[in-house]
Amino acid sequence: MRKLFSLMLVLALVGSLMIGCGSTDEPDNMTPETTAAPETSAPEVQGDYEDGIYFATEPGFSDSGWKGTVTVTVEGGNIVDVDWNAANTSAGKDKKTASADGDYGMVAKGNAQAEWHEQAELAEAYLIENQSFDGINYVDEDGHTDTIAGVSIHVNDFEALVETAMAQGPVGTGIYKDGTFSAEADAFSDSGWKDTVSFTVINGNIVAANWNAIGETSEKDKKTASIDGDYGMVAKGNASAEWHEQAMEIENYLISVQDLGEIDTIASVSISFDGFLALAEEALELR
């Protein structure tokens, strides 16, 4: 009797173990579910733009001395980065740098609500968020908008630059390092002038160039003396154009070709510009 009771007890224990093992719906080789699902990010929606770097500049300098530029970066068909900037006719600091350094002074000089670079950044953020200017409302012909809070500058200039850049297609980045670069000749020439050059580079492109000279005896720089009629190449030397006009031809030609090696002769220029080229090679830095 005692043996029978022991046998029944053993059978009961084995049966309970088999029932316990069969209580799960998962096969033994499956990994148990975790209590928290892994974090996943939604896939980015593919945009309509061709990937690459887009770049455009305004055709010339405004009356205020600035020429607008824009650089747009597209990845996955979407605009992911924008740089709205400008270069000055003096080829000094770019507009964002001048504004950040306090040289532009929109708040102090014009009672603006924010400095130019701060407002430009708000406009850039709007474009990145909306991927176009379709929803923007302009309140006047000057390009002011009430769509972007904190922005009182002419946003239509920004929109026009972006449209130009996107229409041209991706162009990549130029060969030069970004920044402001300058150089000066070591000594005065026999004619009493010492050449100077300065350049503004944005997105690897020369967007402003300024060739000038310091006078050994003149208080005016060479461009100013030429503009004021003191240098007198036309009247005194029967030149086809004054020195400052020819210097600007050379500057603009370099901006158009972006390559010092391509500047050999310019039909409309009769002055020697070897000094300009030598100083430009010294000042500009390649990427």
From TrEMBL:
Residues 24-44 are annotated as: Disordered. Keywords: Lipoprotein, Signal. It comes from the Bacteria. Residues 31-44 have a biased composition (Low complexity). Residues 1-19 form the signal peptide. PROSITE patterns: PROKAR_LIPOPROTEIN. The keyword Lipoprotein applies. This is Major membrane immunogen (Membrane-anchored lipoprotein). It comes from Fusibacter tunisiensis. The lineage of its organism: Bacteria, Bacillati, Bacillota, Clostridia, Eubacteriales.
